[in-house]
Amino acid sequence: MIFDFIKCFIVGGLFCAVGQLLISYTKLTPARILVAFVVAGVVLGAFGVYEPLIEFAGAGATVPLTGFGANLARGIREAVDERGLLGVFTGGLTAAAGGISAAILFGLLVAIIFKSKTKQT
C-alpha cells in the first residue's frame, strides 16, 4: 500500500517538474502550459497510451491536467461508440462533468469566503 503512494507521488511530481521546467526555461505563459498539458492528455488518451500510466500511478496520473485531458478523450471514445458522431460533441462534457462541477463549486465558495483584491504593482 505504501508503494502505491510512492508511485503516485513520483508520477505526479514528475508532471509538476515538467511544468516548472517549462515555466523556468521557456517563454511559454502558464496558461499555454496548462493548455499544453490538457492537449497532451487528450492525445495520449486517444491513442491509449495514458491508460497504463493511470493504472500504474492512480491519482498521480489522474489528478494533473493531463489526466483531465485523458478523461475527455475516454469520454468521447465511449460516447462515439454509444451515440455515433453526436458523441464527439457530448462525450467529453459528460465524462468531465464531475470535475467541472467541483471546480465551479469550489471557485464559488472561495469567492464567497475571501475578498478579492487588485494586484498592486
By secondary-structure content and strand pairing, the structural class works out as mainly alpha
Largest sheet: none
Helix content: over 70%
Rg of Cα set? 17 Å
How do the helices and strands follow one another from N- to C-terminus?
HHHHHH
Distance between the termini: 48 Å
Q: Count the helices. How many?
A: 6
Q: Count the E strands.
A: 0
Oligomer: single chain
Low-confidence stretches: none
% residues in beta strands: under 5%
Let me know the average pLDDT: 89
Task: Tell the overall outline.
Answer: globular
Estimate nothing, just give the exact number of structural domains.
Answer: 1
Would you kindly provide a brief summary of this structure?
With 121 residues, this protein is mostly helical. It is 82% helix and 0% strand.
Structure description:
This protein has 121 residues and is an all-alpha fold. The protein has one domain (2-102). The protein is 82% helix and 0% strand. It starts with a helix and ends in an 8-residue tail after the last helix.
Provide key terms for this protein.
121 residues; mainly alpha; globular
Topology:
Blueprint: H1 2-25, H2 30-46, H3 50-57, H4 59-62, H5 65-83, H6 87-113
